[in-house]
Amino acid sequence: MSTFDESEWIKALVTEAERDVVFVFNIAAGAFGGPTPDVATPLVASIGQALIEHGCIAGFGDPDSPEWQVPVQLQVHHEQLPRVISTLLKEHPDEFEFLAFARRTGNSGRA
Fold this sequence. Notes:
The chain is mainly alpha-helical.
């Protein structure tokens, strides 16, 4: 059982997502005050869900540019995102490790 504070880690990730972006590989590595990778990696989908619930958007590219893309696979109800992210990471780990979460004031709340 881990001794890290998940809610504090989520706050740190949201702060980083506001400042820049948080990649899936950051979450899997336990970056920004998270647990060790062996604990963090299985939490990627649920932490991604928590970031969405905190107003983050998920996609690829620069969230501040028109090139920002939300993959069709992630255009689902928020409740389905953990399962979808988990599946995509298993099926396409090299592609989806670069999935980024960003929180921008005034965004439309897209997935």
